[in-house]
Amino acid sequence: MKRFLGIVKFIGFIVLIVVINRCPNLMITFQKQTPDGIRWAVALFYIMAVCVIIARIWKGYAKKLTDKQKQCRFTWKDFGIAVVFAVIVYLSNMFWTLIIRWGIGASIADLQAINQAGIERLQQIVPLYFFVSHIMLTFFAPIIEELIFRGYFHQTFFKGKGIWPPLLVSSFIFAILHTIIPIVLPIYFSMGALFFLAYYRRKNILDSIAVHMLNNSLVTVISMIYYFFLR
Fold first, then answer.
1. Which of 64, 113, 159, 193 has CB atoms 3.0–4.6 Å from 171's, for a disulfide?
2. What distance in Å separates the CA atoms of residue 204 and residue 129, rounded to the nearest whole number?
3. Ramachandran category for residue 226: left, alpha or beta (phi over 0 → left; psi -120 to 50 → alpha)
4. CB 115 within 8 A of CB 226
5. What is the rounded distance in angstroms from the CA atom of residue 222 to the CA atom of residue 203?
6. All residues at 6 or more sequence positions from 4 whose CB lies less than 8 Å from its CB, including other chains
7. What are the residues whose beta carbons fall under 8 Å from the beta carbon of 148, sequence distance 6 or more?
8. Rounded to an integer, what distance in angstroms lies between the CA atom of residue 82 and that of residue 36?
9. Mean pLDDT on 22-51
10. What is the pTM of this model?
């Protein structure tokens, strides 16, 4: 019964992650029909609500930790290791992107066209929602996804059962949550596996959160360059 309730709770968390990650997209979709005052109210409510949700999940997760885990600190050395992991994630993404490009036979011109269309959509976003969507991408998503996919998942279902079962299962769930396109799954599976390895090194959720944030921050920096300087 306890395991069943754990599964139900985990599914609930997944739904919550989807809602939190998709809300900025909904704001952007209806931005033209939304008055400025409503935009600000929705954006502030979203930010405050997600902060409260993350705080409650973190508090619940902390109860599952041992005293040794609670005393584990995140040092500059750990930050340096997180940077190395983030570089490996980036290289992995580049590798799989090249494989996918070769697999579908996409030319450089095709990729440039896709990239240009993405830039044009990005530049149509109002500044407030650009800020909110990248707060989600850089901070909210890494924190809540790591708490659930690496922290809660491992502590609830695979504590003391080795590295491979939780790595494979959590990475697969992480991948299908981010894409349903089969050929793209290896990118997100590899990302999930590397995030798990970062967490599993000390079983400290701060390690995988740092790697995840560094990875997403690169996307945010690139978006900011296109949004503010290359309009």
1. 193
2. 32
3. alpha
4. no
5. 31
6. none
7. 10, 13, 14, 17, 57
8. 39
9. 96
10. 0.93
Tokens of 59: 């508090």
First to last CA, the chain: 56
Residue 111 has pLDDT above 70, yes or no: no
Q: Using CA atoms, how far apart are residues 57 and 65, in angstroms rounded to an integer?
A: 13
Question: What's the structural domain count of the chain?
Answer: 1
pLDDT tens readout for residues 82-91: 999 999 999 9
Question: Three-state SS for 12?
Answer: helix
Task: Indicate whether 114 pLDDT > 70.
Answer: no
- The pLDDT of residue 113 is 67
Let me know: does 162 contact 228? Beta carbons within 8 Å.
no
CB 98 within 8 A of CB 92: no
Q: Tell me the per-residue pLDDT of 117-132, one tens digit each, with 9 for 90 and over.
A: 777 888 899 999 999 9
Tokens of 118: 């993405």
DSSP H helical ranges for the chain:
2-29, 36-62, 67-71, 76-104, 108-123, 127-135, 141-145, 153-157, 164-178, 185-202, 205-224
Please state the length of the chain.
231
Residues in CB range of 179: below 8 A, 6 or more apart: 185, 187, 188
| Residue that has been written with the tokens 């945010």 in this structure | 220
In angstroms, the CA 173 to CA 105 distance is 28
- The number of angstroms, rounded, from the C-alpha of 30 to the middle of its chain's C-alpha atoms is 24
> What is the percentage of the chain residues whose pLDDT exceeds 90?
72
> Could you list the residue range(s) of the whole structural domain that residue 187 is in?
2-229
Contact 202, 72 (CB under 8 A): yes
